[in-house]
Known about the structure:
By secondary structure, the protein is α/β, with parallel strands linked by helices. 37% of the residues lie in helices and 20% in strands. The chain has two domains: 13-82, Helicase, Ruva Protein, domain 3 (Orthogonal Bundle); 103-297, 3-Layer(aba) Sandwich (Rossmann fold), CATH 3.40.50.150.
Amino acid sequence: xxxxxxxxxxxxxxxxxxxxxxxxxRESISGIFSPREASQVSMMxxxxxCGLSRLDILMGRDSDIKEEHKSxxxxxxxxxxxxxxxxxxxxxxxxxxxxxxxxxxxxxxRPETAELIGLIISENKKSDVSxxxxxxxxxxxxxxxxxxxxxxxxxxxxxxxxxxETASLNAKLNNVNIDFRKTDILHFSPSGxxxxxxxxxxxxxxxxxxxxxxxxxxxxxxEPHLALFVSDEDxxxxxxxxxxxxxxxxxxxxxxxxxxxxxxxxSTADMLEGMGYSEISVIKDMQxxxxxxxxxxxx
Length: 299
């Protein structure tokens, strides 16, 4: 008996659509993004996958794209519908006018962190300074400071091997030299760095476990919890340990900078004052929330 096996290959949904690629993407994700966000997401997808610019789209050049690109676009849309962040899907993101690789080992850089970097740059006009970034993740803080503070010498710690690998790639991508060290700051001795740094900065885990219930699924399901969350019982554990080690590692007159949970601005400032830091400032972000702290150590 002759058997006939039929294999059906599903065409990309975009192939069967009468819409342009841009309009198809925007309509497909309209349930999860505002119209403005959907337009921005569509632009990012078409630029990354098809090499199309905004002008190309305005000229209608997104109406005739390769079949392989149509399949890739459909796959991206499915992942977006499942709440996966676009930056992880595309594998990179722009931050501080630089390109950074991002993946599940590192947080996606936030605007608040750009504000922290801007504060540090504005307050430190000298060149040839020594900087330590604790909990570097993608390397966005360390690399941005290395690019914007001339002749700076930057060291970066992270407990995650995957984060160190990603940050190292980003340093090469953005043509800066960073001394990356795999380090657990909660189990660390500063003996090799006494009176070494002019600036120490950290954006450590600061979201309490009880705050998880109010967070979006695209964060909870995909971004590394190791870099996000801390216990409700000891929410300042990383700030305390970093500030304690910084007493030895900072030069006299050195500056300590933190990105913070807006709920703990006063308690973090009080902690730093009790440890002997001076010139302590709690700085609000663009949304009017306590988001940064700076302090000086005078020995």
